[in-house]
Amino acid sequence: MRMVIVAGTPGSGKTAVLIHALKRLIERGLNPSVVKIDCLYTDDDKKFAKIGVPTQVGLSMDMCPDHYAIYNLEDMISWADENESDFLVVETAGLCHRCAPYTMNCLGVCVIDATSGPNTPLKVGPFLSTADIAVITKGDMISQAEREIFRERVLEVNPQCKIIEANGLSGQGCVELGEEMLKSKEVALGKEKLRHSAPLAVCTLCVGETKVNKKYHRGILRRIDGFQSYKGE
Amino acid sequence: MVDTITIIGGYDKQGNKEPVEEVVIKKGEIFGVVGPTGSGKSSLIGDIEQLAQEDTFSKRKILVNDKQPSYDDRTNPRKKMVAQLSQNMNFLADMSVGDFLSLHAKCRGASSKCVDAVVNLANTLTGEPIKKDHELTILSGGQSRALMVADVAIISDSPIVLIDEIENAGIRKHDALQVLSGHGKIVMVVTHDPVLALMADRRIVMKNGGMRKVLSTTAEEKTISKKLNKIDELMLNLRDKVRNGEVIEDIEMKDVRI
């Protein structure tokens, strides 16, 4: 199974860009399946269904969407297998961007919105810095100078990535993304690893503690001065 | 060096082949793009900006010196052959004018010494002066536009310059056009303004997303263009007077015999 994992900030145009790129894959005789991971709500499955791609939705609810995506990867692959697909596209709504959902052998695609300002690439962390491809959207909304500065900032964070400037409305740049997707490798699930560790988060907040006072908290905790400790049994 | 760019026609909004199959634009030429709103002028400019290779909605192909540009030529800002002045002038970057210009100079491989030159040039085109420590986001539409004109002229000093509806910005458009059409550059101007359209050597007429025809500016049109320029100067002078709080008592029409 070949796999593409697409991550990006909400509203950056992941689905729109993907739909154009998937059309290219279908034209080239491939048979993709899509899994859309979101937190609370999505109707993107209807959009994918419109172009005839089998789609499954996963709502992570109160679990971190990236953890949820990673934990369910095996099931997604076997579901794509059942569809007789040769290609799985996972679109995930990562939120904090402290981690990155990409595995070693998948094609990691990060979709980032140029209107979010030139400092955004420096803020989003591994989901951009470990991506193979950075798709920059909404460049048509800003001046050429700002677009070039944004591009430079992306390269500062991830000098190896390939940058594709795309437009989800017109489909510009999406053919190129489709071509890159065709180059993705086979994943071997037994040995597949994440490119970046998930966040440090084993604490009482994870299991539902709502009190703010420090004395109620257990787990691996870090103080504002940087001191990190484990508290608990 | 860019001697020619060739636009090879694609398809209009309905998916029909464009009536104009090929346009070759030579070094030093000022080219207009005209047509009603929504007729595809900005997408034509967009295709040229990206040096499209049948990979945009229109499926047009752009050749530079009769050759297909390389991927690097198309994407690397240090090699970029096209400088674009788009309609979108809202700055979103949360930084000062000086920082922004030095960052852009770095992207384009230009010296950060040119920052002062850009600000000075911008201030010849706009009313209230722009300062280096101004935040970008407080600039007015006209100031942003003037700053971008100066940026395109100095930092993004590319052989092809694309200008999208410069008349909308309330800046001195003749001066701006002069600043931008430096020696030997190909200049493409998208415009609804007859003054600018007739200043061009040729113009593409757009309709329904396709290039309908290419017109050469006739000798009569050149004469009319000169008259229109006079009217325009008159309007600009009046505008300056009104802006500066003067009372208009009379206007000089003797230069403009229509």
TrEMBL record, chain B:
GO terms for molecular function: ATP binding; ATP hydrolysis activity. Keywords: ATP-binding, Nucleotide-binding, Transport. InterPro entries: AAA+_ATPase, ABC_transporter-like_ATP-bd, ABC_transporter-like_CS, P-loop_NTPase. Pfam families: ABC_tran. PROSITE patterns: ABC_TRANSPORTER_1 (PS00211), ABC_TRANSPORTER_2 (PS50893). The keyword Cell inner membrane does not apply. It comes from the Archaea. Residues 2-234 form the ABC transporter domain. Coiled coil: none annotated. PANTHER family: OSMOPROTECTANT IMPORT ATP-BINDING PROTEIN OSMV. Belongs to the ABC transporter superfamily. This is ABC transporter related protein. It comes from Methanobacterium paludis (strain DSM 25820 / JCM 18151 / SWAN1).
